[in-house]
């Protein structure tokens, strides 16, 4: 690991997830982590965008809870099985990280759907294509059309979903749910145990989908361990 900057705390800002709360991040910049080094941080609640590694450190709040799926035990619910059937013809391709204008265009359409105006091409490249840890991308094709893309980090214990975006034209296919099921299969096929979904906030509707998959574990910030949930 090449540490580019020591750990620091960001200035408090309004919470983007829960109204009326303050958001503070602990962070550092690094590159060149191997799978074992990245696993050490991942199992302690850290995530990363590009060379920026972060975890919440909000005063008096532990609402952002890391969640991971036990891929060996996943049993799709009836609604998830319907999503799998809808995507019988969806083709999933795993590929090395490689910028392509098609990916940025898809990301921009996805961002517009959710009211996000931050669509800068250079930021997109820096955020998702920096090889700070072992990583790859997943591409989802409906016929010959690129329908979605996922960015995945790899540790010695599992995969971590960095970000997933889809073309809103394919919303009826529920590609977000489909991606979690398919990428969990990739973890299992690779002989690993966990699929990390990032942070879950029970009171935040935008994150409700993460609560629909089992079996899972949540990270207990106070006890510094993972617990079944």
Tell me what you see in this structure.
- This protein is α+β, with helices and mostly antiparallel strands.
- The protein has 2 domains: 2-66, no CATH class; 67-217, Gcn5-related N-acetyltransferase (GNAT) (Aminopeptidase), CATH 3.40.630.30.
- Helix content is 23%, strand content 36%.
- It has 5 helices and 14 strands.
- It has an 8-stranded mixed sheet with strand order 8-9-10-11-12-7-13-14.
- Strand 10 (145-154) and strand 11 (158-166) form a beta hairpin.
- The protein starts with a strand and ends with a strand.
Describe the SSE topology.
Elements: E1 2-9, E2 13-14, E3 22-23, E4 25-31, H1 35-42, E5 47-49, E6 52-56, E7 65-70, H2 78-86, E8 90-95, H3 101-113, H4 121-128, E9 135-142, E10 145-154, E11 158-166, H5 175-189, E12 194-200, E13 216-220, E14 225-228
Parallel strand pairs: 11-12
Antiparallel strand pairs: 1-4, 2-3, 4-6, 5-6, 7-12, 7-13, 8-9, 9-10, 10-11, 13-14
Mean pLDDT: 95
Assembly status: single chain
Number of domains: 2
CATH superfamily of the largest domain: Gcn5-related N-acetyltransferase (GNAT)
Compute the separation of the termini in Å. Answer: 32 Å
- Give the CATH architecture of the largest domain: 3-Layer(aba) Sandwich
Cα gyration radius (Å): 17 Å
């Amino acid at each position: 690991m090449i540490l580019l900057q020591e750990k620091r705390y960001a200035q408090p800002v309004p919470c983007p997830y829960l109204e009326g709360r303050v958001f503070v991040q602990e962070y550092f910049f690094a590159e060149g982590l191997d799978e074992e080094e990245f696993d050490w941080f991942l199992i302690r609640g850290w995530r990363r965008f590009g060379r920026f590694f972060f975890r919440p450190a909000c005063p008096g709040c532990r609402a952002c809870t890391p969640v991971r799926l036990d891929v060996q035990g996943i049993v799709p619910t009836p609604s998830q099985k319907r999503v799998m059937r809808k995507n019988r013809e969806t083709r999933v391709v795993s590929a090395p990280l490689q910028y392509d204008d098609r990916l940025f265009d898809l990301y921009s359409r996805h961002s517009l759907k959710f009211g996000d105006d931050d669509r800068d091409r250079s930021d997109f490249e820096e955020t998702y294509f920096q090889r700070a840890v072992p990583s790859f991308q997943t591409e989802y094709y409906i016929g010959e059309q690129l329908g979605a893309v996922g960015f995945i980090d790899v540790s010695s214990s599992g995969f971590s979903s960095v970000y997933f975006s889809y073309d809103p034209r394919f919303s009826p296919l529920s590609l977000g749910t489909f991606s979690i099921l398919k990428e969990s299969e990739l973890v299992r096929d690779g002989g690993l145990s966990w699929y990390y979904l990032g942070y879950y906030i029970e009171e935040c509707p935008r994150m409700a989908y993460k609560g629909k998959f089992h079996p899972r574990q949540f990270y207990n910030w106070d006890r510094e361990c993972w617990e079944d949930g």
